[in-house]
Amino acid sequence: MEYSSKLIENAVEQMAKLPGIGRKTALRLVMQIIRWEAADIKALAESLRVLPEQLVKCKQCNNVSDTELCHICSDKSRIDELICVVEDMRDVISIENTNQFKGRYNVLGTLISPIQGIGPDHLFIDQLLETVSTWTEGEVILALNSNMDGDTTAFYLSKKLAVYPVNITTLSKGIAVGGELEYADEITLGRSIIGRVPYKLG
Q: Coil, strand, or helix at residue 82?
């Protein structure tokens, strides 16, 4: 593809790095952006520029945050003895959008995947285990994708949590096998949270 401007070509190259964005779509996006007011383009660029400089991981739940404690962990109205374990920030957003969960989160950061060389040591779980070790009762929801990696991770976590006085639950089967939480509609996901069931090994 020939470009009349090296600046446009560079912008398209960067935009095309996004997942699901081909070069034609990237070009359409860039052409739309250059029609914006200069101030709006600068605001977009600035919002992206500060991400690597200012984003951190919440020390309590490992969610992406711009403060030491994310706004969920800082919210004193949340139920302390109810933790939902998810893979990443996208799952937190999906569950929060249902307005059906009032507990806290533990963001693993990844799922166990032997094929990709990702093992248990890659999971953010030390804080989770330290927290539940202080409970006399509580509940941990394993809200992981219903696929091989999610099932493997859930099995591993259930074994680690079994020694603590917690109820281990999982989402009800409103989520299709092989499905990912971020693509579930809010009503289905909300019902799956409300109708969560005890996690069973094997």
A: strand
